[in-house]
Specification:
Blueprint: H1 2-28, E1 34-39, H2 50-54, H3 62-83, E2 87-92, E3 109-112, E4 129-135, E5 155-160, E6 163-165, H4 167-177, E7 182-188, H5 189-198, E8 203-212, E9 215-218, H6 221-237, E10 251-257, E11 271-272, E12 277-282, H7 285-289
Parallel strand pairs: 1-2, 1-4, 2-3, 4-7, 7-8
Antiparallel strand pairs: 5-6, 5-10, 8-9, 10-12, 11-12
Helix pairs in contact: 3-6
The protein binds zinc ion.
Zinc ion (ZN) binds at residues 40-42, 94.
Length: 292
């Protein structure tokens, strides 16, 4: 009887101690908020011309473009950290990942770069959110600066379950497949409209606005960076209000190639349905995404 009551008290004391440890552990280490940043160059402030500004080591103004892109990225990292992000991974997504340098990327960000990063490897379920910096709209969009969908040479259009999408849509759906919501974009007016159609509450930093595919109005670089920082902080503060974008299964991906496009691969299941149009069906989004 006596030893039973001692055991009982010991158990109570142990339980209280364990509870105390758990509470202090959760107070010391808040839930990680890891953000993946998809970056591109065509949507950065002041960039209008692929040949003059966007081709790594070839364009006469590429060094300047690289600095503009890095400035926008670092402003976004500042905003995300201010708003509560605990880790930011920056993916160098333009032209085979040859644009960003560890010399001047934000010291608190981690860089994912190099020619060997497949787009299927950029997001997974360890992330809490995804954002876009320097993003352009889909091929054919109205007054969209340097708009294209993956390849301006080869791809005319993509559709997923009948919905026309560009890079923004494909990546929003990709992140959504891992339960990761898209919360913010920096780019031109057309790119902002495109993400808003998929994620109505996405925060947008409209750094420029096209009057054609290769011209328009831009904020100054410092003004663009200030806006990006503000929108990134705002988005991450409201993270709980965002939902991952889910594509209903099964999934049909339709690709229309340009006349110069290299046609799809029948060996992975693409079926030709028109002169330049091919369809791939899969049980879910990831099954078709990996063939894009
Ligand atoms: Zn690009």
């Amino acid at each position: 009887m006596r030893s039973n009551s001692v055991n009982c008290w010991l158990r109570v004391v142990a339980a209280i101690a364990a509870l105390g440890l758990a509470v202090s552990a959760s107070a010391q280490s808040p839930k990680p908020v890891k953000v993946i940043m998809i970056t591109d160059m065509e949507g950065v402030d002041g960039i209008w011309d692929s040949e003059q500004q966007c081709m790594p080591n070839k364009s006469p103004r590429w060094e300047e473009s690289r600095k503009l892109l890095t400035g926008e990225i670092n402003a976004a990292v500042d905003g995300l950290l201010e708003g509560g992000a605990t880790e930011v991974v920056v993916w160098d997504g333009h032209a085979s990942g040859a644009n960003l340098s560890t010399l001047d990327i934000h010291p608190k960000a981690k860089l994912l770069s190099g020619p060997g990063v497949p787009s299927s490897a950029i997001v997974d379920s360890s992330y809490s959110a995804e954002i876009f910096i320097g993003q352009h709209a889909m091929a054919g969009a109205d007054k969209a600066v340097l708009a294209h969908s993956e390849s301006s040479e080869g791809i005319q259009n993509y559709w997923v379950n009948g919905l026309r999408v560009g890079e923004i849509g494909l990546e929003v759906m990709h992140a959504g497949a891992f339960g990761v919501p898209d919360i913010m974009l920096a780019g031109d007016t057309a790119a902002c409209l495109e993400i808003k159609a998929l994620v109505p509450n996405a925060e947008c930093a409209e750094v420029k606005s096209g009057v054609s595919r290769t011209g328009g109005y831009s904020l100054s670089h410092p003004a663009a960076c200030a806006l990006i920082r503000e929108k990134a902080a705002l988005a991450i503060r409201h993270l709980s209000e965002y939902k991952p974008y889910k594509v209903s299964s099964p999934v049909e991906l339709k690709i229309e190639y340009t006349t110069r496009g290299v046609p799809a691969r029948p060996d992975v299941g693409f079926e030709q349905v028109g002169d330049r149009t091919w369809v791939l069906r899969g049980k879910d989004y990831m099954e078709v995404y990996r063939h894009i």
